[in-house]
Amino acid sequence: MEIRGHDASYRSRRPSYVIVVADHDATLPPPSRRNRIPVYTMRRWKGFLLATATTAQVKLHNRHQVLDHIYRHNGSSKQDIMRALNMSLPTITQNLRDLEADGLIQCGGFFESTGGRKPKRYMFNSLVRLSIGVRMTSDTVIVCAVNMHGVCVKRASGRLPYAHTDAYYHRICQFTNHFIRSLNVPSSTILGVAFCMQGIVSADGQSITFGKILGNEGLNTSTFAREIDHPCTFIHDSDASAMTELWLDPSIENALCVYLEPYMGGAVIIDGRLRQGSTMKNGTIEHMTLVEDGAPCYCGRKGCLDAYCSARVLTGHRNESIEEFFNQVRDDEYTHRRVFNIYLDNLALAIKNMRTVLNCDVIIGGQVGQYFTNDDMADLKQRVQRLDSFPDCSLTMRKSACAPDQDVLGAALTFVRTFVDEVCGR
């Protein structure tokens, strides 16, 4: 491939950057649809495939590259950017000036001098926008504000018994609006409000299509949008937790996430992306049949996994917390140890069945998962391998990130990721 052209900062009479591909049958991927201005346009000339870009397109591409580098490295000097991107110093200087004027980057002090003046440290302005995550459960509401690096900068919670009524949702809107006002930022700073829900969400994220836990089937974001002056969306709580997994560990390629909450759930990650399916039901492992005609499930059927592996199974009949249950297990109390062994057997069988369909790594999280020790994880892995029809020495099983308010954080990240991808041209 031969490349001819000019730097965007250089004022040439020719307004385009030309890439000549010396192959009559060569093809290039289509221009990115994510940017308003594509990085290049395609045409053929004398049998050659040409990719051309106007000066404006090249400038936008350079801007994206500079900002993406600063975002990923969380502190860069002009020299760092020049070496990494092979870009001229005048181009970098102009882009830094523009990005700083737009509020996307800021000076974060200076690096140590290696001779001469200390180089400036340019950092992404993580507070340029904020995203709001909200979780409503049977008796509480939690609201978090998340910056553009995925860090919770403020949190509020309150006790409010859930009710599928206009009065309840009005109070949620009041609570959320009061929280947003307490941030003392311009309204334009707020990207949106994402609600992580205990129920199946429609493909457009605007309604609840299955809501047996809280009895809110049919709930629509318009209920909140009437009082909250920001975009609103829904996301399944397990999918939201998986979003946080991906954010905290971008190296995850393929994984089945199992969240052992009071009402358990799951999520599927393929090729480093959350895969929810066309009907948003991928990963709803809680309703796979574990025992034919077994214990009743809240969905109305019998024998579902939730009836055997949710956190309620460990604590429901003893009026104790998860922490108290595991304290008894660690003390080797007979009844608690026996219940835990049965629990692990059921969980191992479920994981074995899941991996028959999706042979990938397994991530264990949720309220129960955070109390699993390394010995518990090794024990669970051995139980899965004993059941496996095809012994797999490559089985990787690990604990979830178990971040505080992981699902609320993940809900807010839906807006964060979209914004960062847009401004960085990803």
Automatic annotation (TrEMBL):
It holds the Pfam family HTH_24. This is NagC family transcriptional regulator. Transmembrane segments: none annotated. SUPFAM superfamilies: Actin-like ATPase domain, Winged helix' DNA-binding domain. Belongs to the ROK (NagC/XylR) family. Gene3D superfamilies: 3.30.420.40, Winged helix-like DNA-binding domain superfamily/Winged helix DNA-binding domain. It comes from the Bacteria.
